[in-house]
Amino acid sequence: GMVDPGEVITATLRREFCEEALNSLERSGEEKDTQERIQNLFSQDHLLVYKGYVDDPRNTDNAWMETQAVNYHDDTGHILDHLALEAGDDAGKVQWADISQNHSLYANHAHFIQIVAEKRGARW
């Protein structure tokens, strides 16, 4: 997602997750339990995976994409296991998935996942 003018990146991450993975724009109001889980997830320490220029097919000589890739980790599963994912906004579909280096991902996303796997001691 894109950062709105004047918005801090942590607010963008929370907003985009809620819009695209929880379909918050179509819901009349999030349940209190869901709000608490989201607050707990995004208030914890996070890992800055990458910040800067990314190779992206939308880049031109006069305009290019820069990103911040961030990892929030739910060690116990207490936060994310009970969230009902639902595609929203411009997300076609959403689901939790096991991932490996054999998956075809957009632009630099595979590299970001590899960094997270290495930092978290996960298999890649």
Which outline best applies? globular
For the terminal residues, how far apart are their CA atoms? 25 Å
- Side by side, the strands of the main sheet go 1-2
Could you tell me the radius of gyration in angstroms? 15 Å
Corresponding CATH architecture: Alpha-Beta Complex
Beta-strand content: 5-15%
- CATH superfamily descriptor: Nucleoside Triphosphate Pyrophosphohydrolase
The CATH topology assignment is Nucleoside Triphosphate Pyrophosphohydrolase
What is the CATH class name? Alpha Beta
Task: Please report the number of helical segments.
Answer: 3
**Structural class by SSE content:** alpha+beta
Task: Describe, in plain words, how this protein is organized in 3D.
The chain has one domain (9-120): Alpha-Beta Complex (Nucleoside Triphosphate Pyrophosphohydrolase). The chain is 30% helix and 10% strand. It contains three helices and two strands. It has a two-stranded antiparallel ribbon with strand order 1-2. The protein is globular. It starts with 8 loop residues before the first helix and ends with a helix.
